[in-house]
Amino acid sequence: MTGEQHGGEQQGAEQQGAERPEARLERAVRAAEQALIEFEIAVETFRVEVENFSRLHHQRLGPMYARLDELDALIAEARAARTGDPEDLRKAREARAMVLPMPGVEELFHHWVDSDGLSPEAAAMLTDRPVQPPKRVRVRDEVRKLYRELARKAHPDLARDEEERQRREEFITRVNAAYGRGDEALLRELSEEWARGPVPAAAELSESEELYARLDWLARRKELLTIVAQDLEESAIGAMLRMAPDDPDRLLDEVAEQLLAQVAEREEELAALTRQVQ
């Protein structure tokens, strides 16, 4: 065999074993898909935590904020009655307007406050009398694990056609709702349902243009989720939750103590003004 023939055979072998140009791009698309799914799972997990903490925050501290607003209005009215000053009268009207009933106030404070003021439960919370603790959702590790497994399997970003995407989106909506309630039994049922469902057809090898378009869509989706995550983290509730992620109840206890101290100060100020008016 001549050197020329040997070189030709070696070159042919290298060409046969060479990777197709689209293969590397396809691996990049798969990696980007998985990364996006993990990011979406993290964002949704934090969103549920923020939502649950927000609910607990309103239930626990809402009555105290309402009481402070009421005391501020009473103090402003007492001061205006004592001085008769037009500016004090204006401030009193503004303070009272802050505590007038608003549409949906019952829903806002989950029935801690109604149109007549503080509910019995709310009033009890401002004293030493026992009160039924607010309902809370604590997502256990097993529930979180079930949710992550389902999200990875059924995520809409893995769809290869519009029909499959719609099926996955409807299913993930149910999964998110179950996770938000911490419903482990329902998540297990959904896991079994997905396992029984139709298996998506294997995707044919994509052309380079389609793979690049897919990467572009994944990048834009990541940008959108980054904005959502940033909004959650910068929200008042998100910031509070990040201060004590492992023990949010402790943070609520600290804020409650501060609010109770403010309530006591306002009540002393109101009592002093009332004595002056009399």
Question: How would you describe this protein?
Answer:
It is a single chain. By secondary structure, the protein is mainly alpha-helical. The protein has 11 helices and 2 strands; from the N terminus they run H-H-H-H-E-E-H-H-H-H-H-H-H. It has helices at residues 3-17, 21-83, 86-97, 105-108, 120-125, 141-154, 162-180, 184-196, 208-234, 236-243, 248-277, and strands at 113-114, 117-118. Strands 1-2 form a two-stranded antiparallel sheet. Strand 1 (113-114) and strand 2 form a beta hairpin. Helix 2 packs parallel to helix 9 (208-234), helix 2 packs parallel to helix 11 (248-277) and helix 7 (162-180) packs antiparallel against helix 8. The protein is elongated. It starts with a helix and ends with a helix. Residues 102-119 and 121-136 have low confidence and may be disordered.
